[in-house]
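Journal club prep — side note

Before the paper discussion, L.F. wants everyone to see what a predicted structure for a comparable chain looks like in token form. Sequence:
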Amino acid sequence: MTKEDLLYEGKAKKIYRTEDENLVYIHYKDDASAFNGVKRAQISNKGILNNEITRVIFEKLSQAGVENHFIRVIDERTQLCQKVDIIPLEFIVRNLIAGSMAKRLQIKEGTKPKNTIFEICLKNDDLGDPLINDHHAVAMGICTYDELDLMYKETAKINRVLSDMFLKDNIILVDFKIEFGKNNIGVIILADEISPDTCRLWDKDTLEKLDKDRFRRDLGNIEEAYIEILERIK
């Protein structure tokens, strides 16, 4: 299957057409950004590592009954995936309080809440991906309440599967964000990627950060942290 014209380029990936209108190639870049694009850099081999980490995770989610867009890996930076129309929402799950929530609400990072926290953000770079609620999403015509219910249920299932998977590898899944899209028959499925770019992952014993926070916070050893995650989950 041949790679055709570029459909979309984001901060971390490029999406290309194929001769099948329902399939796309997703190419992972080494570009890194944080704080809504204010901080930018290149991280050696990040695209290669995130491609493989996402493959491993999406295959495990498929085995657990979570339908997603991943089909197969084409090369070290490229995946063949179902083409989806992305729903412009990010679903965020917080098992521990960290990052923006800790800062916004002045809660100590690492605090474990009594409940699992679910948030949604509007995917809009110009607005800074603001937090919104369910009623906003429906009022804006992004989705229906029934579709939100389905995506929340899938998000909770994904959290259970990933939390257990990472814990077996001595990793705490602190929080993560995911996206959904509709495929060519209108079914809502998991899309985008799941990697240290989209998750906070801490070593269970040392609480060492093994994710994109190493870039956000200038902690160094970013590539090494991503390699560590890949080696553990494989």
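L.F.'s comment for the group: The CA atoms of residues 31 and 147 lie 33 Å apart. Keep this in mind when we get to the figures.
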